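Input record (one chain):
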Amino acid sequence: MNALLADPVVRLYVICAAVLVIKMLVTANLTGIYRTSRKVYATPEDYRFFGQEPAEGRDEDIERIRRSHQNDLENIVPFLVIGFLYALSGPSYTLAAVLLIVFTLARVLYTVVYVAGLQPWRTILFGVAQLSLYLIAIATLINVL
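The corresponding structure, as predicted from the sequence alone:
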């Protein structure tokens, strides 16, 4: 493992991956905190456990955070895989730094603007992250072919 971490691209990838995983954990926990504090639970058994009747309707703030987390699962998990393979493929540090950092910053900011309900920033940041992810995948293929 230490030999891998000697590579600056791998180290940068590990930092970006850790930041993104922490961000996902915070988002997941924030959903739970909102549910508990607002007494809006996900399942009937949760309502029974707390001695309450199921709430009518949905809490839009909770749903917004939950959707943001779902979007993370759909986009950050592929990054964790392809980003690692990219880091192992011997890319130039400069290009790797741009692609990995841009993806990471775009995803962190995406969550902030999604939760705040800010358009068109949500769509712009989603697009920036997606473009970075496509470029990482394409660069990985180029590097190994």
